[in-house]
Amino acid sequence: MNKRILKNRLLELIQAxxxxxxxxxxxxxxxxxxxxxxxxxxxxxxxxxxxxxxxxIEGFCDYFDCDVADLLYFEKIEVEENPE
Length: 84
Fold this sequence. Notes:
It is a single chain. Helix content is 51%, strand content 17%. By secondary structure, the protein is an alpha+beta fold. The protein has a two-stranded antiparallel sheet. It has one domain: CATH 1.10.260.40.
């Protein structure tokens, strides 16, 4: 059985922006812009987020000048069914 899980491309967006501006983006600067902690940014980078809050998504989209579809996507995974 196929299942979809929500993932994000924050790390890819950070890396693309760094290449474009030719310098590193400090996570604390990104966190300050979005209005979250460094820990929250790290959780997003690691795809450890389970609660997607609108103000955070809006902040990332504003920072990277992108749409929600550029930030979030579904990943299909294979799940075994329990034969009962």
